[in-house]
Specification:
The protein is α+β, with helices and mostly antiparallel strands. Helix content is about 30%, strand content about 30%. The chain has a single domain (about 20-45, about 75-185), classed as Trna Endonuclease, Chain: A, domain 1 (3-Layer(aba) Sandwich), CATH 3.40.1350. It is built from 5 helices and 10 strands; from the N terminus they run αββββββαββαβαβα. The strands form 3 sheets. A 6-stranded mixed β-sheet has the order 1-4-5-7-8-10. A two-stranded antiparallel sheet has the order 2-3. The N and C termini lie far apart (about 50 Å).
């Protein structure tokens, strides 16, 4: 197809496996920006700890990282504070309609969430079934029980029973703090 100014568009489809889970992450980031702007909570995405080994400096403002590695295994995706409580959680997506593979959550991430909860913090996982367009918050203890019983995955029915469906809104996009209010502070989940 020919567009003005000589721009050419093709219909070739490129499949990229990088940035999987970015739609859930984008929704959570929008939600967290809303919480911050409205002074509801301060929750941020944690950067992945990377050690940079080799950098090219073609000019002062054009540094290019050529080599780096992960310094340590990262813990979970998000952390912050809400109503005086520390919050820490992981966000995951699956295209599977019937199960969420527990192999998507690493042992060091589960250990980290256990530590948070044991010290009085709030730890959970947000799971999105992308093909069903449903997002759930599941408390960490339910995930720990499943892994203790050597389950390889969480089936959809388990997620529906033990988790909380997070409705998609305009603002905040995924109001997961409404569920946190219900679980930890006695708030009405249907408000």
């Amino acid at each position: 197809m020919n567009y003005p100014c000589g721009i050419k568009k093709t219909n070739s489809k490129i499949i990229s496996y990088g940035n999987r889970g970015m739609s859930l992450e984008a929704d959570i980031n929008l939600t967290n920006d809303y919480y911050l702007k409205e002074k509801v909570a301060v929750i941020h995405k944690k950067p992945t700890p990377i050690t940079i080994c080799k950098v090219d400096y073609p000019s002062r403002y054009e540094a290019v990282i050529k080599e780096g590695y992960f310094k340590t295994p990262s813990t979970t995706d998000y952390n912050g504070i809400y109503k005086g409580k520390y919050i820490d959680f992981e966000a995951k997506e699956t295209k599977n309609k019937k199960i969420f593979p527990l192999s998507n959550i690493h042992k060091h991430q589960l250990d980290h969430l256990k530590s948070i909860i044991s010290l009085g913090g709030i730890g959970f996982i947000i799971i999105r079934f992308t093909t069903l367009n449903e997002t759930f918050l599941i408390e960490g203890n339910h995930i720990f029980d499943a892994t203790k019983n050597e389950k390889k995955s969480l089936d959809y029915d388990f997620v529906c029973k033990k988790g909380y469906l997070i409705k998609v809104n305009y603002n905040p996009r995924l109001d997961y703090l409404k569920i946190i209010d219900h679980i930890y502070f006695g708030g009405d989940i249907n408000e």
